[in-house]
Amino acid sequence: MDEVNVVVAHSERATLRVGDVFLKVDADQARIDVEVEAMALAPVPTPEILWREPPVLALAAVRGTALGRLGEPSPASPAAWAAAGAAVRRLHDAPLPPWAGRRRRDPGELAGELDGECEALVTSGVLPAALVTRNRRVAEAALRAWTPVFAHGDLQIDHVFVDGAEVTGVIDWSEAGRGDALFDLATLTLGHEERLGDLLTGYGADVDLDALRAWWSLRALLGVRWLTEHGFDPFAPGCEVDVLKSRM
Q1: To the nearest whole number, what is the mean pLDDT of the chain?
Q2: Do 127 and 244 touch, CB atoms closer than 8 A?
Q3: pTM
Q4: Boundaries of domain holding 154
């Protein structure tokens, strides 16, 4: 009998793997609704939906291996990264989805959230004030007007699967919607700055590199406390805190 492996679990959702089947359990059915609809619309390979019985969504495993893991060197080739960039470009060029998306926030709202999080990081002693202040300055470049695209919204490096130079699947679409293209690109390269050139070779469009790099700082600043409170370790080598230190 196949073992049950916990892929990820926290108070909001959990993902289990049993053989070649992934079971996603989510208390928020709106997130599952978005995931199902986004996979149907996205012009890139996505997992096959096997069945759905709220609050569970069953998905088939995709072929290939993840592009990499945060905190570890990516084993994927430059060609695989370029293929990932081309896939992301196809997504961003696709017609906008009919829903706004959880990540669609105006710059003023995002700046307010960021300022509050920076203050909490310093007053709680989670991070040194100099580190937070420097990265808050860097993050300013991400707080600009942007044209919405069909965005994945949570395009972490281990959400893109490749086989050689072929993208075989992009997983975890619950945050998809109308979003900032640079947020997707920054999320995919977080902690893997050395792979940015390969990704953009495949993406094939002019990109505001200052704004993209600013998203590394912004995303890490907003994520450190949440990750810590939900059982993850942003202080692990190569992860969010190291990303912030690299901006110094």
Answers
A1: 94
A2: yes
A3: 0.94
A4: 63-246
